[in-house]
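forwarding from the other thread:

> can someone predict this with 2-acetamido-2-deoxy-beta-D-glucopyranose?

sure thing
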Amino acid sequence: IFMREGLVILRLLWFSRTAFLRTLTEENRLQKSRITWWEREGSTSPPGVTARKPVDEDETPLPLLSKKGFKTLPLWDFEDIYNEDADPLPDTCADSLRKSKDENFTKAFIPNIRLFSHKDNINMSEWNRLSHFNNPYGFMGFKYNEVMPALKLIPKPEGPMLLPKPGGDGCIRCAVVGTGGILYGSKKGAEIDAHDYVFRMNGAIIKGFEEDVGSRTSVYIHSAHSITKSLLLLKKYGYKSAPHDEGIKYVMMPEGKKDFQWLEGLFKGERISTGPYRNRDPRMYYSGQYDEQRFYVLHQDFLRYLRNRFLNSPRLNSTLWRKHRPTNGAFTLFLETLRVNVYGFITDDYEKYASYYVHKNTKSEFFFRMSHDFFMEKELWKHFHNSKIIKLYQRNEPKTGGKKLKARRERRGKD
Ligand SMILES: *[C@@H]1O[C@H](CO)[C@@H](O)[C@H](O)[C@H]1NC(C)=O
Ligand SMILES: *[C@@H]1O[C@H](CO)[C@@H](O)[C@H](O)[C@H]1NC(C)=O
Ligand SMILES: *[C@@H]1O[C@H](CO)[C@@H](O)[C@H](O)[C@H]1NC(C)=O
């Protein structure tokens, strides 16, 4: 039963699946009135653009839409419709998210949302539908011939990415490990390593920090940018390569055109022919652990679903919309929302820690970026923790001063 095709993730484990699916359409219809952050004015197409839900007869690519044509995030009438996967697995965990008491969460949650792209799931009408959304949520402004060849190479996952450990209670326990300075001196390493699966992302430096961050990596989430840039940025801390534990699973978060160039080279086992990574051999970056059966590419609809239903930021309603996107950590956390313990993510007392555990006790100014809304994410993690959706690692030390600084930083974060 576990090998049923396309079943990718175990957070999709629901007992009353049939009943749930029956109500799903209705839930979607009600979405806008129930979830306040979704209630934006004018959920219609921007002026001058004819919205249409692409149909199966599409034979040619949609003429290119340009991000520059939209002052704020365009909302299409098929905005909240997503590519869904096959039926979820039966729920084997007595303590699953299905029992979340957070009504808003269960309403927004789609158990069989498609997590990963693969070559058999993309065709011209899908291309045209997804061309209405900016990257990483779609292909707006990308030329068909530049991206489609890579999409057509993505292997089809053979089964779910994660399975419960044999002989266990049917639950899957995951640790999602961020890079926050809160981990330095935490001594959480053994606890992290004791999970069934350990997720890491970006510059996941381990050597020398095992006691605090653990040493195992079961799933590593990255983009072409993060896997290449981390090597340079963290070289001085002894970082030599992305995690490459035996049997590790790699998840690619395709941010832009350069990621599809990366994927094309990776799948073909060739040097990249064009773009910023021209002449590089992507397979080199996986230290011999690249295996197409263990390589996953996040689906654009999964990312848009998260943005629309969980990570909606007021910035989308401004000219910042083109640059804004949730952090890789945020996307990672949702990949596996069943029994997740989260370490090294931003907390209320973030000012007390370095922005990255590799900086040890050096309290660098928290590094805010225009492209991310850390405050929105911080509030969401806190809310999820309080609603028992996740367990967020926090330190229970009394809060100390720094109010002025905080206000200043918050202002800057909003800039
Ligand atoms: C759910 O959303 C409503 C409307 O935004 C809000 O008033 C309520 O407090 C939320 N419930 C929870 C449990 O967060
Ligand atoms: C294109 O792909 C989508 C998503 O997999 C599918 O629903 C649709 O039926 C496909 N259309 C054609 C013409 O194959
Ligand atoms: C978005 O912007 C419009 C126009 O400036 C405003 O009326 C609306 O309240 C804003 N919505 C959100 C959710 O910020």
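The first strand starts at residue 174 and ends at 177. thats all i got for now
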